[in-house]
Design a protein that fits this description.
Helices cover 3% and strands 54% of the residues. It is mainly beta. The two termini are 32 Å apart. The N terminus is likely disordered.
Amino acid sequence: MRTLYPLILISTLALTDSVNAEWAKRGDLKFQFQAFTDTALHTATQSSNLSVSGNAEFNREIGENGNLTISPFFRVDQHDDSRSHVDLREFIYRHSGDTWEVNVGLGKVFWGVAESNNIVDIINQKDAIEGNSPEHKLGQPMINLLLLKDWGEISLFVLPGFRERTFASKDGRPRGFSAIDTDNARYESDNEQNHIDVAGRISGVINEWDLGFHVFNGTAREPLISFIDATPFYYQLTQVGIDVQATLESWLLKTEAVHKSGSRINDHMQLVSGVEYSFYGVAESDIDIGVVTEWLYDDLTDQANTVFQNDLLVALRFALNDEQSSEALVGVITDLDGGGDLFSAEASRRIGDKFKLQIEALIWANADNDPFLGQFQQEDYIQLELGYFF
């Protein structure tokens, strides 16, 4: 991560242009409780877990066209030392012109339209011990040039530094049979974490269609895991992909597709495609219900480095449209080849102006014969989180 520090220095020097500027501040403090319904099949013996996390965002203008954003994050976990960590999610300086923008520092970028799995979202590394939500990302060192056109945007990236994926330790849950040995990660590139990745994306809107096309070349964010010693291997990857979303009255049509190639993997294609239909004002109430279906496919089938090689998501989204912004999403991803099923449910509701309660549950089922999901057969859990926002 030596390449990280010059980028932070550049961002910090920008402060000298506006020492009297005021900071805009916001953040949250969250208390989390997890309850596991079964005894683990590995070394972690706890049936429950407590943790506290905090996230803040500080923002200030630098001169007439500059802006600096700093977003620190921390979590302290009762059992898992790997989950107790501090990170800078963002430390990025932005300078804008009429038709362009430059971003330098640690940043977060999101690409994708799918509900179940955003296979095109490749710029940032996942903070996997925080959960599966796209918001759980490690800050990525970057130099980003954004060109604004009448028809859309062109976004170019130089990514001078790689961050390894986080995994639960031997004392953490949920996890597989063996804790991932993050201390002995291996790389295809001789430069390891200092390999310079590059990426570009073109996006635009044509009538009801939102379109995106991207190219990435560099270190794969998702490692190959050795079954012998549970060490991660980060290989070199070229990825080309598209993301498409169409809004047609009550219908949303969504597709993400990528082609991946590299000397250490078989060339292959991945696809996530589906629809969402919304019923508004159900039974003359304020409640909206969305029905979501998505197909997840990898043409490597049983040799794929993912559990989603031929799976179907079916989910229901509920929005009560009340003052408390109550909402919920309940769904199941089932393996169409007869593997396991993953049931998930999440709901949230604001309490007053400062608090928010979130509930999440994950259940792995029918996974006895699935070499990957079978590891999680007894890792079902329910999670409660109370957040204070300021």
